[in-house]
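Lab meeting notes turned into a lecture example. A postdoc, R.K., suggested we walk through two folding results consecutively so the class can see how the record format repeats. The first protein's sequence and structure tokens come next.
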Amino acid sequence: MLFKPLALLAAFAPLAVLADIEFTSPAAGQTLQPGTITFTWKDSGDSPSISDLKSYQLFLCAGGNTDGTYDQLTVLQTNGDFSTGNSASGSIVASIGGSTANAYFLKMISVATAGGTVVNFSKRFTLSGMTGVFSANAQSGLKNVQGTNGPDTQNNVNSAATATQDDGPFGVPYTLQTGLTRYAPMQPHPGTKITAKSAKPLWPTSSYSIATTFMGPPTQLTTLTQAATYSYSSRENPASPAANPSDSSNDDMAKFLNRWKD
């Protein structure tokens, strides 16, 4: 399947605030034909504006509305730049999936200039005249879909990723760094209580391409993690150890174990 968008939307949100991209085309429930399709979008009006976002990835998806119930059928844009405009065109081949009504939607992973990501989803639409077949996973997910809403927005913006001069290169958001050596912020100090009820990834999965020819030189070789600046102290427990039990059963066990000392 080939999809070559000229430019596609991004949704990047700065610290702790949700930045939404609102698609204007395709509209909710619209039916399109495979081939060249133009997508358009606008700023939803939520703070911050799109101009505060850095870059984005765009995927064509089909299936349900929760993680694990839909498939990312193809990458439409791997390193999009919103400054190129609010529309993009691409080609979709008929064999990429089926023609189930409102099966398709767009997934956009936008990177905030201050660090972190926001994942936005478009409304659902239909691709008519498709000749492919959805996976069992996507078909199962579609059984629970009602209406034209796509999955809920996922706000993964890192509110702690503010850069300061004291941090030096470690204060620059990782996704904005270039060069063979990059710098990661220090690991956070463990909390005193376990509050998480279930495991959740900090970031969405990254797209990848399998090399079919010899690749060029690497664009990154080393990641350096900032040294911890916090400290902790410990001391010996001053409590006296408890005496050994002295009931008859333990005495018998001691005699039994003593047999094996020699």
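The second example is placed directly after the first for contrast:
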Amino acid sequence: MAQTVRGVVAAGKGAPVSIEEITVPDPGPGEAVVKVQACGVCHTDLHYREGGINDEFPFLLGHEAAGIVEAVGDGVTDVQPGDFVVLNWRAVCGNCRACLRGRPWYCFNTHNAKQKMTLADGTELSPALGIGAFAEKTLVAAGQCTKVDPAAKPEVAGLLGCGVMAGLGAALNTGNVGRGDTVAVIGAGGVGTAAVVGARLAGAAKVIALDLDERKLGTAKELGATHTINSKGLDHDGVVAAVQELTGGFGADVVIDAVGRPETWKQAFYARDLAGTVVLVGVPTPEMRLDMPLLDFFGRGGSLKSSWYGDCLPTRDFPLLIDLHLQGRLPLDRFVSETIALEDVEDAFTKMHHGDVLRSVVVF
């Protein structure tokens, strides 16, 4: 029987969000209903509200979540009612060309629930990243539920659903940071700081965090950055020279751009060592363009990579990272700046935009 719950809805481009009654249907084949316990406030939700993803309003926001499976539909065997899960937006299909080649983290056919959640008047909602977890309960594809150790707090575990996983994976998976490497991370927000943590976890000898905000740089240093650079007032050459000065004049082995702008990507490109790696994990907007000498791409060699969701495989990475956290080796709790109520999401967007928090997390 369908249920009615409260959820955060973005009704139109740029309009403040509102709390609405949401109808959640019973799970159909391959689907699950999850009782949401916590959900982080992510920049992607703000992008949805601003129309930066698509114009399929109204949106049911929220996607960085953890909770308890309440019910499952026919054919679901990987999870069952009572399981503590982190929700993910990469529910791999197992049948596409990437999956069949043994690269499921590049799955080209990730799937969502087939049924739609609706407003009370029957208007269909578009769930953010196919999840829609700023709600007391949500309907997802069962493959979007990843079981983890229930000893982890929901407000901490849910962070793996997006931003923190993106940053950790940019270093661990995409950047393939190795023992003794030098790493520079441009942008010390939630994703960038997670990349710093991932680089240290991988054994990097030197991790340099760059940002315009001393507060963010201070947090990055507390979480593992060995050096920081305040790039406020520095031009392109100044940023590159500052990284080179800290890396013996060579540049870093891996540079991670957690901002996603043409100017920061160019800084990353030139601040790496010869044959070094650039990882783009910050998300650009459609109008952004690059204009660079093609010879520089050839002459400097190395790898230029984009990191999609930290190139993670949720079934592999989430349980491992939660275990590391419970062992005291991965300080996921340090990313939770505050816990808030569902009604506080709009204020949380403002705090996030001003750089006042790493993560605000809605707790139900």
